[in-house]
């Protein structure tokens, strides 16, 4: 998964006043109270589209259901099922809801059958169905090695208790090691629970995991957080008109995201690294730059078992994630899977990972891995073939589906539940060629609002647009109806008729979407068009994450918060001396831009601030203020203290709930009865 950990909002880290450190994981938001979410029925056009889509699927293939049942030791107990599994009991195993794409609903059915403690093979067990990811327990000489410890502390604690209560061997043995496969929160967020249960546990992580965990999410964190709420349907609720599945797994657990710094980072010595952990030999392959900027997979020779991390699951992953992130390298992804095949394909008998059920048998595993490899290679190579033939970004998502090989199309485990062929192809195009298609008309268009006004004017006015859109809506031309009505609602936000029809259009597009992120984005867009943004409950990242922010991270983020139109008039320089780290940062505001860099000695500046990194962390957590630290003699400021006032005056607060679709003014809501809180 690729979860956005941090959204940081700081008045200014150097203000003499207290400042808040707002940390949010909005992808894990849930609406306040008991919100009953409903929606309109699927139209005839949607029913027909989903029926036609269903006819292309291999419904006779039940292998995923069988794999989910294999090795079941005990179903989830009351406590573990209550984490999130119980919310999805509405999923029907015998029929498909009219308001859900049939392929996505089938994935929802599959993930409902992953619910319990499973024996993968001798010495390997998994708890599935308590979070987006699986938690895996591997026997070692004197205890257990736990692999990828879920998203939240609460889920990890409950799942581990469940494991020890049901596992048929080694109940009395401790967890001696904890391994993170990569730098996304659903694979390390429960770490603190494990450490508190077993204080002597040794922690291993992918090369650069701590740095990448922070770096990937800080600078654009506020935008990522807001967008993630759309991608994961933060306010939709679990129902046939809202969330039915998270693609990678059933859903996201609720609770605190934590982090324990690894004692040892793997693969600093090379692409492959072999070590023994509590007597068990493990071979780690570095997969950085594929699904995550820091990641790896693991082969256990004595068990002939490959832990694939997040490299492979029963579906296609994101090359570009809708919440926003740097585009991933699909060619390297394909090549890294190929390296695993070449290294271990001749002897492997068990393939298991962070999501989905395992695969057993050498032939079956090789078939699975080769198809996964070829799918990511297909996306990369065919996207560039099309681009090299002049196909532009807007068109490439449709064109790549036309050349999808039958073998890939017929395999359930290459379907676009998390990443779609459409947006993945556009990601490859963007990675190599950028956003511009070289058509001069697209080089310098008007801004969205004035462009929308002109479009409506050219199309003959609002009434003419709505009249044509109503006809196309009845014919199921939802993609174009969405395009044109978006222009109208942007131009005339108070046009209730257009707003209602646009929301209905997004809703039908959501019902037709195979990709969970598409479905949730369309349905959240419809919701916000109708009633505006509904409140969610932020799940805060723990002290562990905040404490790992470097001073450079903090200063870089502060630079993003500077309003250049104000800052251009208030230049200054300041040394920041971090005593406990022996660091000196020279910060300069010039030409409306905040610069920072590490230097070897204090430079001539308007002011010098001396403070400990540990105390800055306490400020970020809201446990103290710079004023309190200076009063206590734990921080000093020499020179012009007005420097801090200049920085504060030039810094803005991000709107954590900025508008994505035009929200209705109060009293102008439409179809509000679909979202009743009680």
* Strand order across the largest sheet: 2-3-4-5-6-7-8-9
What percentage of residues falls in helices of 4 or more residues? 25-40%
Which residues form runs of ≥5 with pLDDT under 50?
Answer: 1-33
| Beta-strand content estimate | 5-15%
Described by strand count, sense and barrel closure, the largest sheet is: 8 strands, mixed
| General shape | globular
- Which radius of gyration do the C-alpha atoms yield? 26 Å
Count of strand segments: 21
Overall pLDDT: 92
What is the tally of helical segments?
Answer: 24
In terms of structural class, how would the helical and strand content be classed?
A: alpha+beta
Keywords summarizing the entry:
alpha+beta, 6-stranded mixed sheet, 678 residues
What would you note in describing this structure?
The protein is α+β, with helices and mostly antiparallel strands. The chain is 38% helix and 15% strand. Helix 16 runs antiparallel to helix 17. The model is unreliable at 1-33 (pLDDT under 50).
List the helices and strands and how they pair.
Blueprint: E1 35-37, H1 44-54, H2 63-69, E2 72-75, H3 78-81, H4 102-112, E3 116-121, E4 124-128, E5 135-139, E6 144-147, H5 153-166, E7 175-180, H6 191-197, E8 202-205, H7 209-215, H8 221-231, E9 264-265, E10 272-277, E11 280-286, E12 296-300, E13 305-307, H9 330-344, E14 350-352, E15 359-360, H10 362-388, H11 393-402, H12 406-410, H13 421-433, H14 448-458, H15 462-474, H16 478-491, H17 496-512, H18 516-531, H19 543-547, H20 551-560, H21 564-567, E16 572-578, E17 583-590, E18 593-599, E19 607-611, H22 613-620, H23 626-631, E20 636-639, H24 642-650, E21 675-677
Parallel strand pairs: 6-7, 7-8, 8-9, 13-14, 16-19
Antiparallel strand pairs: 1-21, 2-3, 3-4, 4-5, 5-6, 10-11, 11-12, 12-13, 14-15, 16-17, 17-18, 19-20
